[in-house]
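Dear all,

This email documents one entry for the complex benchmark we are building for the journal club exercise. For each entry we list the sequence lines for every component of the assembly. Then comes the predicted three-dimensional structure of the complex as a token string, followed by one or two observations. Please use this as the template for your own entries, and keep the labels exactly as they appear.
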Amino acid sequence: MMLEKLNINMIITREIEVKILDINIEYYNNLGFEVYVGDVINIPIELLSSGSHYKILCKCDGCGCEKEVLFKNYLKYGNEFGVYYCRKCSEDKRKKTLKKNYGVEYPLQNIKILNKKNRKKE
Ligand SMILES: [Zn+2]
């Protein structure tokens, strides 16, 4: 995973404390963490599972306001990873960049594929 290529400037939370449970241990083991159920680890938010309910603090690229959002919801916004716009600014931006093509190099694609693989095993 090429984390250094990600622009995560507008996500203020860099690491999240995650508790290892039966339901997520495989995910973290697959990422290369040597963890056991009951462990608490700090992981960079880029490695959070895309269904995570953890809150991350973001700063709006437009007006600079700070807001806590659920990681899960953050991904739903469909911004490039690391970019955040508050509701008001994202409306403005959406109008301007309606035609923008995000293409196949979406940085979170790897993580999404990983999640799919995990699901198939269950
Ligand atoms: Zn804003």
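Observations: The chain is about 30% helix and 15% strand. The mean pLDDT is 80.
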